[in-house]
Amino acid sequence: MPKRRNMIGAMAAIGLSGGLVAGEAQAQSRGAQRGSRAPAPPPGSPASTPLGPVDTIARQALIVDADTGAVLLEKNADERMPPSSMSKLMTMYVVFDLLKQGRLRMDQELPVSERAWRMGGSKMFVGLGDNIKVEDLIRGVIIQSGNDACIVLAEGISGSETQFAELMNDYGRRLGLENSTFRNATGWPDPEHRMTCRDLATLARHIINDHPDHYRIYGERTFRWHDINQENRNPLLGRVAGADGLKTGHTEEAGYGLTGSAKRGDRRLILVVNGLPSMSARREETERLMEWGFREFENVALFRASDTIEEAPVYLGERLKVPLVGGRDVVLTLPRQWRRNLQVKLRYDSPVPAPIAKGQELGKLEVSGAGVPPMTVPLLAGADVARLGLIPRIPAVIGRMVGGA
To answer: Which long-range contacts (CB under 8 A, 24 or more apart) does 221-226 make?
Structure first.
């Protein structure tokens, strides 16, 4: 029979601490994001959280921990919506990746077409016939939200904005954006140009993790081009401690939106909201929700990769016990007042028959509790255990038969 061990109240024995470690993002993320969810609430209803309902006037909203993937708050997070200029995050991801591959250079100059020059909406104010460095165009997109800069990049990379949009869709599929469709490089209104809060949060995590050097540009406050100085439109910068990105958006259909991120110590949150009624509402709501996420939750290191979680008895082995390890650091994002409700259970067959190879999966560790996204971590053998030779095995076999074990 599988052995089951309840570890409630024994957290100190496995090295519980409040520090953040990189690690079990995937398991917790999938448990929190892909499990059974109730139908999406109507726009006027509160967001759902592990602490209960939280009011927000946003039509769509999501807050996730960037390292664990835990969902702290969500409202219509899988509803396809017009992302407006927030879809420029994908435009920039493509540019960053081409730079990383060496297929594009920061000092490379791209020509300004008449179409780019005439483009409406927010602008970098490129000049017709100019040749502009990629580095400047990137700042024109990130800081000034320039639609014209987006088109210069799209045409310079793919020949046309339509072809570039197909490249965006290719990247979206590779990054796991399950509910996103791109029809242009700018977020200009199009009935088929759609994203979700969850996809925007996923994309933001990729930008932060895959292109950290370029991500720093999102925290820059101003950019001057053609003697026109424009400020970064992100309302979190300078107002929320640790805020360093990412992108605002607004159209009449979408309302006001923001994909934002802030880091405090070793902890980073990503927030996505859309459908807010005004710039002031966007500023106030995003600041309130970001502060709520940092205040109400903390990251807890359950155990480290090298920690021995249990020593399992071994049958017919050269050693009596084998250490069980998680093989990686495991961190959970928990509501502060629910931390003591964490339940951890071990499941494995005992005794474990030899031979045993280091890294062999021998059981599972299950995590649950009020306010805790459920997750399962494989338990691995922390050492090799050879099988006893024929002569030494005989007493062990007889002892097991006599004892009825």
So the answer is: 221/143, 222/143, 223/139, 223/140, 223/143, 223/144, 225/124, 225/125, 225/126, 225/136, 225/139, 225/140, 225/144, 226/125, 226/126, 226/127
